[in-house]
């Protein structure tokens, strides 16, 4: 990557969500001069809509071995990442380690969970099967109908919204710049330098990193053959208020819903998974189904105030793996496509990416997640 001293920035990062902010911070930690430009506001979009679960174990699926393996490495990276970030930003990001319970509110769901548990055992993941009684000893508000479930003490969680605030602060404290409300961007390469107009400011940078969400406007224009492998998967969610009636401390999931308690007394309830393009409306059917499933495992949720309903768009690639690394265009790299795992994946991915971009460090994940895989269909992973 180029680094002519004539440009004010080594890197212009397009996108102020979890992917862009973690990458900007990691590059700044390497002494790179970074500017993050965000279409609307920092942490908006999928980052704000997320549940903040760091849950590779309970999301283990036999069809996605890379996702589980990368997720486990990303999870191991988290405690050190959080400790450093909190020191840099001088704030708490709500990292919680109570763990996750995947519960079965009836015998049909218990049957499905047994399959997941068998898969987890095959992968030798550190999880245990508990009876309904044992689960209610841990979370007393679980329904008496809950027949059993999986406890994963290593599937943690973080406050995704605080994380975005902390990352933006850290970028600035490391000498970087963050510019919001820039609207649509049209980066151009002029004489070996990238240029873009951002909110009336002319940005010049040696390199550009596209870290947009599912809409990926710049990526679609600059690398359409890669961008055509990226699609939005709509997720509807709610936030409930358990400040008066405190129901749960663990992340509680079923096969149909997850409930993620935050330090501020909110519970994130999510999420649908819909192929509906960028339709950003909440619908009665999906919100009803989420609340029905939440009520089925914790009947007292019916007493909780609803604080928020919302929609996010997961950036899904056609193979469900991230887009990470350089592209065939000189000085243009990508960090995107984290699909359902942005909050978990991004810090570790950013760390590997920055090592690769700045120090040419090679890594099997940079190879596996290379955006160039979509140019070379016959390449072996
Ligand atoms: N990782 C949670 C979700 O995508 O809904």
> Helical segment tally?
11
Structural class: alpha/beta
C-alpha end-to-end distance: 24 Å
Strand element count: 18
Outline the low-pLDDT stretches.
none
How would you sum up the global shape?
A: elongated
Q: Which strand-content bin applies to the residues?
A: 15-25%
Question: Which keywords apply here?
Answer:
381 residues, alpha/beta, FAD/NAD(P)-binding domain, D-Amino Acid Oxidase, Chain A, domain 2, 2 domains, eight-stranded mixed sheet, 11 helices, 18 strands, 33% helix, binds glycine
Explain this structure.
The protein is an alpha/beta fold. The chain folds into two domains: 9-53 and 161-229 and 319-375, FAD/NAD(P)-binding domain, CATH 3.50.50; 100-153 and 231-316, D-Amino Acid Oxidase, subunit A, domain 2 (D-Amino Acid Oxidase, Chain A, domain 2), CATH 3.30.9.10. It is 33% helix and 25% strand. The strands form three sheets. Strands 1, 2, 8, 9, 10, 11, 17 and 18 form an eight-stranded mixed beta sheet that branches. It has an eight-stranded mixed beta sheet with strand order 5-6-4-13-14-15-12-16. Helix 1 (18-29) packs parallel to helix 6, helix 1 runs parallel beside helix 10 and helix 3 crosses helix 6 (160-173). The protein is elongated and about 70 Å long.
Write the layout of secondary structure elements.
Layout: E1 9-14, H1 18-29, E2 34-37, H2 46-49, E3 53-54, H3 65-89, E4 100-104, H4 107-122, E5 128-131, H5 132-138, E6 148-152, E7 156-157, H6 160-173, E8 177-179, E9 188-190, E10 193-198, E11 201-210, H7 217-222, H8 224-227, E12 230-241, E13 251-253, E14 258-261, E15 266-270, H9 284-297, E16 306-317, E17 323-326, E18 332-336, H10 342-359, H11 364-368
Parallel strand pairs: 1-2, 1-11, 2-8, 4-13, 11-18
Antiparallel strand pairs: 3-7, 4-6, 5-6, 9-10, 10-11, 12-15, 12-16, 13-14, 14-15, 17-18
Helix pairs in contact: 1-6, 1-10, 3-6, 3-10
The protein binds glycine.
